Description:
mainly alpha; two-stranded antiparallel sheet; 14 helices; 4 strands; 3% strand; Cytochrome d ubiquinol oxidase subunit II; heme; membrane; oxidoreductase activity, acting on diphenols and related substances as donors, oxygen as acceptor; Cyt-d_oxidase_su2
Amino acid sequence: xxxxxxxxxxxxxxxxxxxxxxxxxxxxxxxxxxxxxxxxxxxxxxxxxxxxxxxxxxxxxxxxxxxxxxxxxxxxxxxxxxxxxxxxxxxxxxxxxxxxxxxxxxxxxxxxxxxxxxxxxxxxxxxxxxxxxxxxxxxxxxxxxxxxxxxxxxxxxxxxxxxxxxxxxxxxxxxxxxxxxxxxxxxxxxxxxxxxxxxxxxxxxxxxxxxxxxxxxxxxxxxxxxxxxxxxxxxxxxxxxxxxxxxxxxxxxxxxxxxxxxxxxxxxxxxxxxxxxxxxxxxxxxxxxxxxxxxxxxxxxxxxxxxxxxxxxxxxxxxxxxxxxxxxxxxxxxxxxxxxxxxxx
Length: 345
């Protein structure tokens, strides 16, 4: 295999790993963020827990694999990326920890104080995870502050208008994913309430998505180079918008699974739009574009990437098979709110 082809193949795999993680975990993070505002009693809380309980930890496998693939396939990207984004990634680790512990612990004891502490830990941590990831990836597409002399990126420089807008867009799409998934999984009044939230969130998501696309064309126009060279690529953001437009009519027809799939497609294609514009760069420097790091510069040795590719060909289908089984096993029934026992009880 050509040595020039390996970095491209691994760039595609790197993108796939991040996109699959965002798509799968957005529903849990979205439901987690709205958790105290959706459930009106313990039974409804238990039903919402059961709606995401069998899936969230399996979904995180893709996050861990994406981080591992960055380290092994693109060590230079890993070094610069995790140095420049040290603070948000450190906060992300804490948020992931408290998201998991909150979900696991809130039903362990009947004490109201215990329950409230871990319920809000689950909620706040879920919001922080998706916000931090959204702001981080919006900035990866926008460009980080580094040059040949070193990193100048700080948490404050990440909180620029474009980064915040991108973060909020991802947050609202995750909320839409969570409410459509929740409506698909539960029944009764809670199902109707989730549908009501989803209808409102769709308007917010459509507005933010549209503003973010306009902002990308005006503030991150380096991403348009690949699109202008191959205009057929514009079909990617166009499909993302089309899928988002489909969500509301699907919801109105009661096609909740279809609405969730369309929302997931929007999230996936929104991220793919950024990654396609970014290529061949993996880390774009907005302060010194000549210092940007490409996939070719950041790639590990051909032998390393070849061995990893063999491992990926064997192991990725195993992960896909396990998760496909889990989704098929636990996605076939509606959760009866009156019979829900919760997760980790």
